[in-house]
Design goal:
Layout (H helix, E strand, L loop, with lengths): L1 H19 L15 E2 L3 E2 L13 E2 L9 E10 L5 E9 L18 E11 L4 E10 L2 H7 L14 E2 L3 E2 L10
Parallel strand pairs: 2-7
Antiparallel strand pairs: 1-3, 4-5, 4-6, 6-7, 8-9
Length: 173
């Protein structure tokens, strides 16, 4: 009986770790809206590239952007636990989040991001989507592979034209 319990515990932990990154970089259609560009992937590893979450407004024309303000960030982990909150995200410029959760740990895996925006006409909208936050070390430690061809990183983004550039993010081996 004791051996069965230990085996079940190990199996349960392994399944939970695979859920952590389930569908990472998937579901790109959920990232389409009229107001902000939404990268699907971040790598908060401290190299200065795709390390922070920020709101990136779409451009309406050369002189104006699609939002006035963004606020009320809530971040939930793959277990639907609230792990981080931030009041202001955008007010004439982005106010980034560095993927450190409320307990001071790096937030990794599939994360649900939600916040509110005020569009250029002053109308409020709720924005909600998933992003994938990973480090190559964490993927290697957990023996998890991600289809990086589906990932969209912030460094691929042109604010007027969308995700048009190749990423400079080193792809994990």
């Amino acid at each position: 009986m004791r051996v069965f319990f230990i085996y079940s515990l190990i199996l349960m932990l392994a399944c939970n770790e695979s859920e952590l990154y389930k569908n990472c970089c998937g579901g790109l259609d959920q990232h389409i809206n009229d107001w902000v560009w939404i990268p699907s992937s971040y790598s908060p590893n401290g190299d200065g590239l795709n390390d922070v979450f920020r709101v990136v407004p779409k451009r309406i024309n050369n002189d104006s952007i699609a939002i006035q303000e963004a606020w009320g960030l809530e971040v939930r982990d793959y277990k639907d636990q609230l792990i981080y909150e931030q009041d202001s995200l955008y007010n004439g410029g982005s106010i980034p989040w560095n993927f450190i959760d409320g307990d001071g740990k790096r937030a990794l895996g599939n994360l649900e991001i939600s916040y509110l925006i005020k569009d250029h006409d002053g109308v409020a909208h709720a924005i909600r989507y998933e992003v994938c936050s990973f480090t190559c070390q964490d993927l290697e430690d957990k023996k998890i592979e991600i289809d990086f061809s589906r990932c969209r990183f912030e460094d691929m983004l042109d604010p007027k034209n969308g995700f048009v550039a190749p990423t400079n993010e080193p792809i994990c081996p």
